Amino acid sequence: MFPKPKSVLLPNTYAFESEPMVKPTGFREYDARWLFQKEINLMGIQALGMGLGALIAELGVKQEIVTGHDFRGYSASIKYALISGLMAAGCKVHDIGLAVTPMAYFAQFDLDVPCCAMVTASHNDNGWTGVKMGANRPLTFGPDEMTRLKEIVLNADFKNKVGGSYQFHENYPARYIADLTSRPKLTRKLKVVAACGNGTAGAFAPQVLEAIGCEVIPLDTELDHTFPKYNPNPEDMEMLHAIRDAVLQHKADVGLGFDGDGDRCGVVDNTGEEIFADKVGVMLARDMSAIHKDAQFIVDVKSTGLFITDPVLQKQGAKTTYWKTGHSYMKRRTHETGALAGFEKSGHFFFNKPYGRGYDDGLVSAIAICDMLDRAPGKSMADLKNALPKTWSSPTMSPHCADEVKYGVIDAVVKHFEGLQAKGAKIGGQAIRDLVTVNGVRVTVEDGSWGLMRASSNKPELVVVVESPVSEQRMHDMFEMVNSVLRTHPEVGAYNQTI
């Protein structure tokens, strides 16, 4: 018998050391995230492992799983608690040690193991932990699997049995690095800033980029889980500005920034200007669709409208579909449609053959960017960016909103805009041209300006993005419109950053 998890336990008590604590809201739409010691304890992680092992068996999948951990002060202990639960459930565990998340995805193919459980808080602040899970490579869990996992864990509906085992794979990163770098070297000499924010990618990114032929300027690549400079998140302006400064100082061709678990890549051009990941996606789509006829792409609802309107993509026969934000949703849709690639504004890129295996890997993205520059020998990164039609777009902005209420707020916002559209009402003097409601609501008006509001899948926040192909002022107008609607809901708090 194993006790049912409690949602709250007080630290420094007998109960905290003897019972599992698992806050239900930690089960997100496609992975799990908790504040360690406040929302989950080690016995709670052990319960998660038992539940995951039971779910794998329930899905009819062989109980064999890859696990690794990111570079946090507590991640290794969390992984071992998870492993103890997985083994109790009868799983054979393949431990690859300290790893970026895509290394665990790679290991599923390389070791021929069906499942993965990667211990990572991704780009979340210190204090957070989590697990990215999958039982059908290259896919990770979606809402159905996460809902069932939550039921099993919270009800302690475990099916523990003998037969679990453990294998540690020594020096596993060498196999991953060899897979990425067994290819022709770049013909163009590129000077690249590799920025890792002292996160896990620092152990691997510089040598991968050097091995494909880049001259690498390392920036905060020393592992330090206190993250002394800034959180390793290439969507945050603080990290982007640090990359800008290094690019300008060293006269680099491009700056590449990797998030805490190495599945995303942010880009700064040779002039020091950051290029938001959706625009990088358009540049890569141009490059790839020039080589591959009738290329299909999937992009998330936060991404620029250029995927539809760009004349070069139109001329090259590229077709793009907008889909739900979230690495699991995007990965699944890219896989199911057989698209050449999927691009998410957050920097999760999913490349199918011949570029990748369908999962998100910041280093595969970095290599694709270097190859794009290699195929444009007379052009800089800024030249390629400036060749895109001009739009004014915001970074991802996130007002606080508690996990318990955020989806209700967004449901109300969707209904508000559907009501306006049904009445033919105008927003700031313009009619609504289009509503996309696959994930929150994306409102596009007559001049092509748009605003997105959705609930974050992994933090107690909403997500807001605005863009205009007309002017910077129109981008600000869309933000004011969006914000005025959100401010009718008192549950919506302060933004992490605004334009």
TrEMBL record:
GO terms for biological process: carbohydrate metabolic process. Its cofactor is Mg(2+). It holds the Pfam family PGM_PMM_III. The keyword Hydrolase does not apply. Signal peptide: none annotated. CDD domains: PMM_PGM. GO terms for molecular function: metal ion binding; phosphomannomutase activity. The keyword Isomerase applies. Residues 429-482 form the Alpha-D-phosphohexomutase C-terminal domain. Keywords: Isomerase, Magnesium, Metal-binding, Phosphoprotein. Residues 26-158, 176-272, 278-390 form the Alpha-D-phosphohexomutase alpha/beta/alpha domain. Belongs to the phosphohexose mutase family. This is Bll8126 protein. It comes from Bradyrhizobium diazoefficiens (strain JCM 10833 / BCRC 13528 / IAM 13628 / NBRC 14792 / USDA 110).
